[in-house]
Structures are given as C-alpha cells and as structure tokens.
Amino acid sequence: MLTTAPPVYPVPPAWSAEAKVDAAAYAAGYRRSLDDAEAYWLEQARRLDWLREPTCLVATHHWDMVKSAIADHAWRFAALADEVS
C-alpha cells in the first residue's frame, strides 16, 4: 500500500509577519517540552487564568499486561494541596 505525504503549502508572507513564534523558536520549545516536560508545561499553564494555579504536573501510566508495555500515558495539572494519585 502506497501512502503519499499531504501537500505542504507555503505560509503567506502577511501571516508569517504576524506570527508569534518562528520555526527556530518552535523547535526550541518542542525540544524543551521533551527534555523538561514538567517545567515546560507548568510555564505554559501560567499563561492561562486558573482558580487555583497548578503547582505540579502528575504523570499517569497504564500498563498493558498482554503487550508488556505502557498502553497509555497522560499528564494532568495539580495544585500542591490536591491529591496526587
């Protein structure tokens, strides 16, 4: 079965001029999100309005016993006083 990549369209110059982030900044942010996920996502969370600002990021994993591998991985924000289970 052959698959083809979706077409890539150039960004109009007017859109590019108004962009909040360029390709280099995007790549740096993406790399940081992988290298230090908790700090990166808590920093991003501070850009939002919260009733209680999150103070930590909690990872949850679900183990697939049949495949002997992590089947699901998720992050959630939590305030320090929240239950972290």
Brief sketch in words of this structure:
With 85 residues, the chain is α+β, with helices and mostly antiparallel strands. The protein contains 3 helices and 2 strands; from the N terminus they run H-H-H-E-E.
Observed structural traits:
single chain; 85 residues; alpha+beta; two-stranded antiparallel ribbon; 2 strands; 33% helix
Largest sheet: 2 strands, antiparallel
State the helix count.
3
Task: For the largest sheet, list the strands in their spatial order.
Answer: 1-2
pLDDT < 50 runs, ≥5 residues: none
- Percentage of residues in helical conformation: 25-40%
- Determine the structural class based on helices, strands and strand pairing: alpha+beta
In angstroms, what separates the terminal alpha carbons? 44 Å
Strand content: 15-25%
The 3D shape can be described as flat
Mean pLDDT: 81
Order of helices and strands: HHHEE
What's the gyration radius in Å? Answer: 19 Å
Number of strands: 2
What does this structure look like?
The chain is 33% helix and 22% strand. The protein has 85 residues and is an alpha+beta fold. It has a two-stranded antiparallel ribbon. α2 (23-35) crosses α3 (37-45). The longest helix has 13 residues, at 23-35. The model has no long low-confidence stretch (mean pLDDT 81).
Topology:
Elements: H1 13-18, H2 23-35, H3 37-45, E1 56-64, E2 69-78
Antiparallel strand pairs: 1-2
Helix pairs in contact: 2-3
